[in-house]
Amino acid sequence: MPVRVATRSDLPGLTETLWGAFQEDPLWSWAFPDRRTMKPWWRFLIGSALRYPSVFVAGDYTAVSVWIPPGGSELTPREEEQVEPLLAQLVGSRAPEVVELMERFESSHPRDRPHHYLSLLGTHPDHRGAGLGMRLLAENLEQIDELGMPSYLESSNPRNDARYERLGFERKGEFSTPDGSRVVATMWREPHAS
Known about the structure:
Layout: E1 3-5, H1 11-21, H2 26-31, H3 38-49, E2 55-58, E3 63-68, H4 77-91, H5 95-108, E4 116-123, H6 132-146, E5 151-155, H7 161-166, E6 170-176, E7 183-189
Parallel strand pairs: 4-5
Antiparallel strand pairs: 1-2, 2-3, 3-4, 5-7, 6-7
């Protein structure tokens, strides 16, 4: 399965894959109960990440990984200002809770060491269960290992924690949704010697 760096022209395909991948995710279905409103949110995040050459697509949008490089940010300062109005438009009266969730992501993010941040990883629903997303992640991690850099991610679905652990991530902490009903694991991986 060929893997390449995505470009701006890939935004529709990337969005479609990640939207499909997260439809049943426990955390993101809590944040966006109307699954249609999740799609513009992913488009917003992916569109920003494409300013870095660290968004990867496997096959014909079979699996996608969105990385933020060391020293980078998920959103630009201007985009940060758009988060609350966009969420108000997408989830209405639930926006304050979802904004609070985003703040918990931000406050849990480690700041003490430069690292590669896996913002999003997903497999198109038509290809789920074949291990393709994990294969893409393993390939990404090989490249990061060559750089001698650590990696960080948040696992929004407890079913994926063991998969990440098999690739060398260790659980470092957790945070929950404002109502306490969903838990996100924070996971760190030291570089592995090749």
